[in-house]
Amino acid sequence: MNPPRNRLDEYGFPIPPTFDDTPDRNAVIARWKGSRWVRLGLLVMLLTGALTALLATDLGKAPRKVLAAGLAERAERAWLRDDTAAALRHLNTAIWLDPEQPQLYLDRGRVRLERSDLQGSLKDINRYLQAAPTSAEGYLVRSTVWQRLKQHKQAIDDLTKAIEYLPPHEPVAWNNRAYARAIAGVDLQEALADVEKAIKLSNREQSAYIDTRGYIHYLLGNYAAALADMEHAVWLAQREAQQMAELLVAHDIDPAVARRFRRQLDEQLAVIYTHRGMVREKMGLFAEAQADLELGRELGYNPERGVF
Known about the structure:
The chain is mainly α. It has helices spanning 23-34, 36-48, 50-55, 61-80, 84-97, 102-114, 118-131, 136-148, 152-165, 172-184, 188-201, 207-220, 223-250, 255-282, 286-299; strands spanning 7-8, 14-15. Among the domains are: 26-133, Tetratricopeptide repeat domain (Serine Threonine Protein Phosphatase 5, Tetratricopeptide repeat); 219-308. 75% of the residues lie in helices and 1% in strands. Strand 1 (7-8) and strand 2 form a beta hairpin. The chain is globular.
């Protein structure tokens, strides 16, 4: 989900980024933003049921967009606190208010994906991509949905499109396509080339990329190379977790948001420990393998929930 896209005015209401330039609409917006009495009047109308009728008219378009933008921000904050039920509720209402805003469908698609509503997520992201067919972000998200649905070819195809539309120095889609190929068990040499490209493009070593390369080596039967990568990926992931913990404390991040970041880091470590356990098992290091696999489960490894 994107960072909040709107600022708040002195009364705490969202200020939308742009509106059409028609004078009548600008007048409506000015009154909406500048008058406490207008807001009070709308509240009274809401309580009497009259607001619904207003919002259904052309005059109501500007307030609908403002309300939808505010709800999108509330959804963002709820999502960051791991309250996906509230995020979904806010986005449902935002889309009812402003159904022609594509970003709302991408945001709701992400929330539905996190809630394992895969078909609902796919429907939303398809709607978004109809309006934004060159959005690399949309293809990246949809590729994850395809993977969860075990539709690996579609996932790889979407990641190829993401590579096409991303700036050439961006590594994420190269790594993701490498991992999608590995999960599918296809084109492993091409997958290895993809992740080497991602590592080369990245401005720092990332545990996820090293883990991807190690997993591909594992699938190719290169167990010594796989174990070396997994050992390094574990070290990198632990360092990344420590750095994040320090940042969260230093910036006094909301505890609920901090828990979300820690959970995501735990899940990343869960995947890496699981992969290292698989490699150690192939190498006959059964006690160490069992310890890694158990630690992976404790940290949240769960392919059915998308942690794989």
